[in-house]
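Reproducibility note. Readers wishing to regenerate the assembly model reported in the main text can use the exact inputs given here. Chain order matters: entities are listed in the order in which they were concatenated for prediction.
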Amino acid sequence: MPEGETTAAVALGDVSVAFRLAGDGRYTAVERASLRVADGEFVAIVGPTGCGKSTLLNVAAGLVPPSSGSVDVFGSPLAALNRQAGYLFQADALFPWKTALENVAIGLETAGTPQGEARPRAQDWLKRVGLGTFGDRYPHMLSGGQRKRVGLAQVLIRDPKILLMDEPFGPLDAQTRQIMGNLLLDLWSADRKAVLFVTHDLEEAIALSDRVVIMSAGPAARIIGDWKVPLTRPRDIGEVKLDRVFNELHREIWHRLKTEVIKGYAQAEGGV
Amino acid sequence: MKSRAQLLAMQIAVAVVGIALWYALTTYPVFGHIVLPPFFFSNPVDVAAQIVAWFATGVIWKHLWVTLEESILAFVIGSCGGVMVGFWFARQPRTAAVFDPYVKMVNALPRVVLAPIFTLWLGLGIWSKVALGVTLVFFIVFFNVYQGVKEVSPTVLANARMLGMNERQLMRHVYWPSALSWMFSSLHTSVGFAVVGAVVGEYLGSAAGLGYLIQQAEGVFDVAGVFAGMFVLAAFVIVIDTVVSVVEKRLLVWRPVVEDR
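Running the prediction on these inputs yields the following structure tokens for the assembly.
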């Protein structure tokens, strides 16, 4: 920490990630990315499709080790899985053989909380995400949005210090995304965790976060921009988009992002 | 509701027509000769009389019980073995790689050729039949459990780890349910093969069971007995299959139901 300020919840220092391809090739997903997320800060990472945003998130989670660079969590280097973090995945990650209630309770039960205590707390969380009467449903009986709500409860019940989210609302329709965004802000404002939120939707990023970080098109994606979001909280996702400040910021960031998105498409079509 | 009753009526009609044809062709001459000679095809009345006689005297129960016992034992032992080895191989890729050619070899072998050896080793009692059934059930369960452990969704696995599960908890909450779901989805096949193993084993050499009954009847050209044995066996399998369906429905309640029509 060069400036000697307060310890960051997550600090990535010059992180590069390369994967070995079949054969002898190497694919560099992320190159020399540095990012600090302060405690209680909501940071969104935006970038074109396939730019390595998710890879960066997996590095912060400890699921993917960086090829070089440092990962610090609350000041101490991350060696294995990030135990302080909760991770909300893009794809369906609920256990299909467990009911909604069991899915939410499992994170407590694995940590040794007896079932008799974990279940009522899980029920409480289901109520907080608006699914109080859905505890006995299996994931396949729930809609996409409801599954995301269960996922959110499953992660938050463990009270992680850091929340990592990988395009969590990506597969949902526009209205549901807005409702889920407001729900997320609502839950987050209760105890302000550090959040790292990956998305390809710039509007969503600005509406939700305190800071927006832009990544360049891959391969070897870098962080190329960092904007503070000067919007007041509490916010309503639907209303904030009508704000003048929102629109100016959106125009400014989009101007920078656009060239990367075009580059990303060109590469995808070129078969890289 | 109406379509269901209609369907049932049509299903019964098929049986009635089939039996009527069988009866007519074995009893009444067509253009001077009988199309299905009763010596080879018996006739429905004799077959029904034989089945009634078996149940009236009660001899059939002993044979049914023996076949059931062999099937259950074969299923339980084969499943346990399949689950254990499947799990072991899936978690130890190196072991799996070493044994792979042998597994393929044994699986490719038509199991019937093993029956005489099992009879030689285990005698004419139930265990030689159980052994034959086990060799059939084992591989089905083994391959399914192996697949089930291998094909756990990487996202679900990553989620489980992020939720703080250790290796033992992963086993219990992720690998085990996934493997079982694959095993249960092949329940009909594996139970069916347990019965096949038992009946074929009995047929090739035994002192009791449905296979034995059919084989005995065949030995004295009692075609009515053979047909009667086949019908009892078919009914037996349908009953077992129904039980399996009920069990399956209970166990896989978390699975999406495929709309069947």
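We highlight two features of this model. The first strand of chain A starts at residue 10 and ends at 20. The two ends of chain A are 36 Å apart (CA to CA).
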